[in-house]
Amino acid sequence: MYAGMLPDSALSDLPLVSTAVDESDLSPIVPRTRPRVSPLGAAVLLRAALAFLTFAALGALAIPAMAETGVQQVAPPKSEPRLRGDVTARGDVLTLADLVESAPEALAGRPLFRAPALGATGTIQTRRIVEAATALGIQGLETGGRMQIAVQRAARRLGPPDIEAALKRGLESGYGLDPRSVAVRFDGDGPTLLAPVDLNGQAAALDMTYDPRSHRVSGLVSLGERQASLRVSGVVIELREVAVLTRALNRGEPVKESDLVTERRPREAVAGDAQAGASAAVGEVAQHALAAGTILRISDTAPPELVARGESVTIVYETPSVSLSMRGLANEGGRLGAVVNVVNVTSKKVLQATVIGPGRVSVGPGPVAQQGATAPQVQATASLR
Fold first, then answer.
1. Is residue 347 domain-shared with residue 256, that is, in the same domain?
2. In terms of domains, do 238 and 365 share one?
3. Does residue 61 lie within any of the structural domains?
4. Scanning 105, 115, 244, 284, which has the fewest C-beta atoms within 10 Å of its C-beta?
C-alpha cells in the first residue's frame, strides 16, 4: 500500500516478492501510468438524472403489482371434499356436513342417514356415503382408503344414583318419608335412563306407588315432558346413623374424634346396640381389639379407669364443716362414679368409696355432689379412725 506513495523512478528498485516455493511466479513490478479523467459535462449529468427518475417511477408502479401477485400466490387452494373419520351424532339424522369435510354450504345440512339409537354405535359403508354425495353432485370424494366409518350416538345417561334421588323426592312429597333415612334397592341390575344430550333438568318420578307394609315402590322416572322415561321398581330400605371406625384400635386405646365417622347403614344389617353417633364414644377406651371399618357397639368402648387395682389413692371425706384426706390402697379398679373397695393404710380398714378422679376416691357426699356425677352418693362403711 505504500508503493503508491513513491515516485515512479523508485518502483524499479523494489525487490520481487514470491508466493511460490520455487519462486516460479517471480515477475517484476511494472509501474502503470494513471489515465487522465476529463470532467463530466452538463449534458451527461442531465441524461443520468433522467434515467434515474425513469427507473424510480417504474419501480413505484411495479411494487404494488408484485405485492398483489405475491398475495395471490400464497393464498391456500380451496379444500376438496373429504370423508371424515369416526363421528359422534348428536341428533336423529346424519347430514352431509357430519360425514364430509369441506362440504358445500348449500348442501351441508342435507340429511343422508338415520343415526343409531341413543348410546348405541353403528357403521356406514364408505361406498354408500360416496353414492349419496354423488347424487348431490359432489364428484371425486376423497375417502382416504376407508371401507367404513363408525357412528356413535351421544346420549345423556342417568344412572342408579340419579334415579334413586328421583324416587326419594317422590317418597318425600307423596308419603312423608325422610329421604336421608331411606335407600332404594332396585329389582335386577341398576337401571340406566338414556336421554338426548340437550334434554336438561333433573328427573322426576311419576305414577308412583308405595306399600308401607312390604316397602315396595315403583314409578315412572321421566325427563322433560316424558321425552325420555323409564319404569323402575324396588324395595325401600330404612337407614340409621352409626359410628364407624376409620382405623384399627388396640385394647385400652382411647377413641379420638378423628377415629370415627358417621355413616348411614341399612337398619336390618346393623346390631341393635350399635353406637348411634360418633360423639358418644369419643374419650372412651377400646375394650378389645377393633378393626378399621367396624360399626361400634355400645359394649366395644367404655370410659377409662381412673383408679387401677393396687394403685395408691387419696381418700377424701368432706362435709360443710369437715375436710379430711388420707392415703389408701385400691383393691380394684374403677371408672368415674364407680364404687370400689379401698384400704385405709393407717387403720387397715376396708372402705367403700366412689371414684371421683384420677387416683382419688371419696367416702363422703361433698366431692361427689360438687362433681355433679350421675352415680349415687356413697357413705363410708367403716370408721376413718
1. no
2. no
3. no
4. 105
Report CA torsion sign: 339, 341, 346, 348: positive
Full residue range of the structural domain in which residue 282 is found: 155-302
Cα within 13 Å of Cα(123), Cβ side: 7
Tell me, what's the pLDDT at 44?
61
For the cut 80, the answer to whether the pLDDT of residue 165 exceeds it is: yes
Residue appearing with cell numbers 398483489: 68
Q: Which of 46, 10, 16 minimizes the C-alpha distance to 28?
A: 16
Give per-residue pLDDT as tens, 53-68.
Answer: 776 666 666 555 555 5
Within its chain, how far is the Cα of 89 from the centroid? 27
CA distance 62 to 56: 10
- Residue 135 has a pLDDT of 92
pTM of the model: 0.55
Nearest-angstrom CA–CA distance, 103 and 80: 8
Q: How far apart (Å, rounded) are the C-alpha atoms in residues 344 and 339?
A: 15
DSSP state of 120: -
3-state class of 227 per DSSP? coil
Instruction: Report the C-alpha gap between 279 and 54 in whole angstroms.
Output: 101
